[in-house]
Amino acid sequence: MKYKATGIVLKGSPLKENDRLVTVLTSEYGLIRAVAPGAKKHKSKLRGRTELFVINEFLIVRGRSLDKIIQAETIYTYPGLSQDVGKLASAQYLAELALYLAVDEQPQQDLYELLNEHLRRIEKLQPKQNVYPYIAHGVFHLLAIAGIAPQVHNCCRTQKSLTPNLENPKYLTGFSFDSGGLVNLAPPAENEEPTFIPFVDRKINGMEVAIMQQLNNHSLPTIPALIPPGFSLDESWITVEKILRDYIKHHLNKTIRSAKLVDSVYNTFDKKRPENVPPVKRF
Predict the structure, then answer these.
(1) I need a surface site. Which of 26, 136, 229, 250 has the fewest CB within 10 A?
(2) Lowest-confidence range among 32-46, 48-62, 121-135, 262-276?
(3) Which residue pairs, CB below 8 angstroms and at least 24 apart, start in 211-215?
(4) pLDDT at 252
């Protein structure tokens, strides 16, 4: 049986001598793993069309174990990603997460459209522009669409709303992976009953809390034009991305392998830096 699907290639590997096994995220059928016969041959029409981040209209034949691609018409290729190793690594980061979240044989239109939207944003980045805001924004959106985004507006312990104090550089809020989000570290008021304080994996400042609370917005968070003394916007973004990265590992039991390449490209993390010390950006 033949079927058509529109999808983006997120993963590929050699198969036999001339074939290629690709994993495609489609809006109609979720994840599809299919063989592209002869795709490794130089003159094959499927060679370039089954490369990473190429969007095609596929014609596929169902097989007993693996489906087979018999035709692919390219819609878009994301040329801006392939020309910049930093952008490419950032796109691979989001693609890995999408692969972890996607399911087989089920429509995935929202996930498909959301991933492509964030890939377009990364593709348009200017040289040396901080990529971590775009990664963190995309990660949060992908987690939200899967229903596992961290709780950032209310305290996981008390369920009361949290308002970051940007005027106090010593203000800290906790982040607990087990509890699934932010934890108010302030002691209870005199008229409040003491509550159990969950284990806190990270302590973050007001700027980082403010960023997290706007990550669900369609556009990147709006940060005050005048950064309060004691805050670094770039460092805050990097810290937020690192927390989300560790959150993925904790809840999905998966490691984003491309994240190390991103850090390497932008030389962000110092190997000798203690876990809870904010990193220094060196773009």
Answers:
(1) 229
(2) 262-276
(3) 211/136, 211/236, 211/237, 211/240, 212/140, 212/150, 212/152, 212/182, 212/240, 213/152, 213/153, 213/162, 213/164, 215/136, 215/137, 215/140, 215/141, 215/152, 215/240
(4) 97
Cα(167)–Cα(80) distance, integer angstroms: 40
User: Same domain, yes or no, for 231 and 134?
Assistant: yes
**How does residue 18 score in pLDDT terms, banded at 50, 70 and 90?**
very high
CATH number where 169 lies:
1.20.1440.120
Within 8 A by CB and 6+ apart from 193, the residues are none
What's the one-letter identity of residue 115? L
On whether both 183 and 271 belong to a single domain, the answer is yes
**Alpha-carbon span 168 to 131, nearest angstrom:** 27
Distance, in Å, from the CA atom of 121 to the CA atom of 125, rounded to the nearest integer, reads 7
Structure tokens at 15: 């198969």
* Among 52, 77, 102, residue at a domain's last position: 77
Residue from 106, 84, 108 nearest 98 by CA: 108
Closest CA to 211 of 196, 200, 197, 221: 221
Q: Which residues of 258-272 are buried (b: 16+ CB within 10 A; e: fewer)?
A: bbebbbebbebbeee
Three-state DSSP at 23 gives: strand
CA distances from 12 to 36, 94, 206 (A): 10, 16, 42
CA distances from 232 to 62, 73, 271 (A): 53, 46, 20
| 137-171 residue pLDDT tens | 999 999 999 999 999 999 998 899 999 988 888 89
Cα 126 to Cα 213: distance, rounded to the nearest angstrom: 26
Q: Are residues 226 and 91 in the same domain?
A: yes
